[in-house]
Amino acid sequence: MIAELGQFAIIMALLAAIAQSILPLIGAERLDSRLMAFGGQASLVQLLFVILAFGCLTQAYIVSDFTLVNVAENSHSTKPLLYKISGVWGNHEGSMLLWILILAIFGAAVAAFGRNLPVTLKARVLAVQAMIGVGFLTFLIFTSNPFTRLLMPPENGRDLNPLLQDPGLAFHPPMLYVGYVGFSVAFSFAIAALIEGKVDAAWARWVRPWTLTAWTFLTGGLALGSWWAYYELGWGGWWFWDPVENVAFMPWLMGTALLHSAIVVEKRNSLKVWTILLAILTFSLSLIGTFIVRSGLLTSVHSFAVNPERGVFILFLLAIAIGGSLTLFAFRAPSLKAGGIFSPISREGGLLLNNLLLSTACATVFLGTLYPLFMEALGGGRVSIGPPFYNNTFVPVMVPLLLCVCAGPLLPWKRADLVGVLGRLKYAGLATILAILLAWYVTEGGPLLAILGLGMAAWMLLGTLSEWADKIKLFRAPLSTSWQRMVKLPGSAWGMTLAHGGLAIAVAGMISTTAWKVEDVAVLKPGETISVAGTDYRLDGVRELVGPNYQAVEGTFTVSQNGEFMAILKPEKRLYNVQKMPTTEAAIYSTFVGDYYAVIGDQVEDGGWTVRIYREPMITWIWFGCTLMVLAGFLSLADRRLRVGAPAGKRKQGKRKQKSQQNAAA
Amino acid sequence: MTRKSRRMYVLVVAIALLASATALVLTALDDNITYFYSPSDLKTKQVTVGRALRLGGLVEDGTFEKLDGGLKVKFSITDGAETVAVNYEGILPDLFREGQGVITEGSLNEKGEFIAHEVLAKHDENYMPAEVIEALKASGEWRGDEEQITE
Fold it and tell me: Chain A contact for B122, CB < 8 A?
């Protein structure tokens, strides 16, 4: 019964979405307020039905209703409750439903929080948002229905892939999806603005918080995914340039560009056409990403043959969404009025450079990810492109961007004096030289490029800090004045400092762990010791143990340095009962300066065990930096909510606030 | 600063960026593409010794052996028609076993043996790398037609 209710709910949601994508558009054209208001109501109705459908599927998973194909294939009655629930989105159909749920939540949120949006703009935004919903709901109902029944239900299910049975991965997809789907709002606003033929500062002020929300969650989702890969796959790596990673990374790069260019539209009413294009491209990349992961397109074009229906549908949807929006852009963009002018060396110029570099970087990733596909489609043979490609293309493009990160915020709007700005960074520059010397000393003259890279990270961090100190007049005014200025700094200013600082910290972690990672593989018998990078790992013993739905062998290592005890590590190798699939559970001892990482493998003939030991310098800095960036996103959001959500009556106050902010920034 | 000259600046910077990015991509593509070969391809096509490539197929039954205490291994990869011996040193992925589809990355040595520095077996045991399926189909050894499961 529950499943039929769910089936009914997604059909109702589709009908609501169809109505919502047509009527408000007509209303906005004819200035019919009733038809326009319908958009808001329909978005709520659509959301309620999608929640109902999602609830039904979750219920089926919790009670292990194996009459559903989806549940039978991806769940098992002995699975812990958390993984029964996360199993809902641990498969193709369920994850599509989650996608639709988040899309509907964003649509309803625009309707609920957008009370003082211009009515025609709001109606059009909701209509476009609903069109995306129509596309996805049709896809769900016709090719990926999660509520399909099984005629002969099995005794028990086939279980969720054990690699996915992990708390990190339980929350990774929802966060990533909030990121992906959040960009749909920016997209809808962009399309609505093209239909209206008007983009102004108010429009940008509306788009920014949504983009920021999406960006924040996408950052979190990416960090969580990379952390999961690090501890769960047992290879000690944090990023593999795998196509699936790349397709999530591309919207992040474009979204970051969008976040920055929207500032220019908001503050200076310039770069409008570019910002619209970025909004379209960012969401298009999200769409491509979702579908590429979901269709298995990237392993090979021929995966289409496996499920031609789904593949063709996907291509069709992508063509409509991306082709349609770009065509609209080509027709309407010239009619948008150009905004204020600025000199190349100015805040606008800096942000534009940021945009150009980020887009170029994104283009290199795009090319590397899709090149094998093009090659195969053109009959050029099967090829694969690995990390060296990205190290030689993506990294060189990102370096100038990272070098400029701390200078940009110091540039005033319209025109700037570069020498003066660099002069304000002289202490940061001096400290950077010290940091390089320090890195050179500590690493005993390690690889020059890595040391310079660390210097770059130090420059980013110190430059960002000195910009912050500059803003509150630290050491140039009495401390009490600085304190007051600091307290009065708006959330978005804090957000900027924190995000740039977090990026610097993450970059430092990435460079160190790439350059100074040490790994060793050996066969050890209990009692034997292996020494890796000056640290001793003694295998004390190996025992068998039984988990809720798996059996495992667990090794115990004593980690010590110069005879001094540091930690006990207990890596496992598990064999899951249902899928008969082995997984590796690494054991990690994290410290500020690096991780000690141990993996246990198979037993060999003479009774020894193969073990892998990694020493990962500063790797936790990556996730610490990402956490700071996520925090920064929320801080800026807290600030924007005050300004954007202000009802009409209080708008004056909002303006005053903005003014004081501009003073603070000056 | 007029609108026209601003557009000029932007255009110059954008073109410069694009040109350098294109140059980077082209050189990187030249050096870093790894071609996929099936055992049959390896026998029929001319392959330079030492050139990095991917070799994929099924691990042939009864060919897997451990040398020198377990870290060095030797096995054969087959597509049904041809077989290539592979040497590898390191830990094999969890899902590696005889009869399983795998992809190895490495290069040929003078003796015609494949020296792998990486062995990939996918996360999911129902999953067969698409390249391997193609290779098996090409040699007429493909049997299963179950739906391919992807992440």
Answer: no
